[in-house]
Amino acid sequence: MKQLKRRSFLEKAALGIGAIATFPILGNAKGILDQVSLPYQSKVRNALESIKITDIRFFSLEFPKETPLTWNAIKKSGGKKPRVSFLEIHTDAGIKGTVIPKGPSSTVRKFAAKIKGLNLLHTEKVWHHMYYYDRKPVAKGVELHAIGSVDLAVWDIVGKALNLPVHRVLGTFREDIPAYAAGGYYAKDKGIKELVEEMEGYVREGFRLVKMKVGFLEARKDAERVRAVAKALGTDVRIMVDANNGYSSAYEAIRFGRMVEDLDLYWFEEPVAPDDWRGNAECREQLDIPIVAGENEYTRWGARDLVENHSCDILNLDTIKSGGITEYRKISALASAYHIPVAPHGYAHMNIHVVASTPNALVLETYPEKARDFNPALPAFSLRGGSVKAPSAPGLGMEVDEKMIKEYRVG
Description:
It is built from 15 helices and 14 strands. It is α/β, with parallel strands linked by helices. Among the domains are: 1-48, no CATH class; 169-398, Enolase-like C-terminal domain (TIM Barrel, Alpha-Beta Barrel), CATH 3.20.20. Strands 6, 8, 9, 10, 11, 12, 13 and 14 form an 8-stranded mixed β-sheet that branches. It starts with 5 loop residues before the first helix and ends with a helix. 45% of the residues are buried.
């Protein structure tokens, strides 16, 4: 879009010809109104004060390069062409919110439709309406996935309306964000040698924190894998291990943990079943490794249960599953009252705004550059010294290039 003179653009925006997303308004609404001709000021003021949904759309992209089949302790993934779906919420301000949603599109659409008449700038009211209005509120399940998906799209809209990245709207705490490479999956014909080479590649890419899977093999074999990686990477890089709830009992998880706790591991993620609060607490009491839990929990009430049962040292609730950014802020505040850090699970391009704006956020989960060979929809973050920079683009930064949509769209 060609740059317009400021007064001219604002007047066109007031007439509905432009979009209000091309200028900053936070703390500067009066200054903006002063630059608009008097006949248009009331229209501009209304545009700055109310944004409502006009349409809800979905589209999917499929990329041609088949991903390798990999697995963690409980499930397999890959082995096919990668597909990614997007939600777009369009508004009467000419702004659209774009995110990668979770859950069935019909459920996501239902919750987006529930807030169609509401002012999206009232983010707390919007979330409250989705959660409580015209249904029995439940704290878990695909309905929460839908609420979280819509909430993130709403925040994308708010950021674009203010011409600010979402973390700036929330209140930036840090601009240099520690990040880790999520990898180390099991795969056919992948032995210790191949695992070590993979992890060394992440270090060359710039990561100082790497995560690998455990819990699928017998404890001693998994311990051997972890030790080999630790020996190859040295003391400048720290390792996370993720069992994906793979150990059926706390004593099995503790047995494995004792075999590797001398390696100064960064954390031990989801050692036992998500609802085994007592088992998580036992692992935390018995091991000298920080225990992480919460990826499969929901809302501030799920976080409360984990905290009150002493189930973890670090909370890693999924930003979408837990209810979106609006709810994650409450989760982070709850955790901070107990001096517990948070490390959100899920898509880095959405989570980065949470980590950047949350004082007790610890680190950002990301996938390394090689993942873009299979799914180039969103660019990899540029690393320097193991950290990435907080985004500067308005909103969440989830926009997909139109040429890519045209080439790879399948639905």
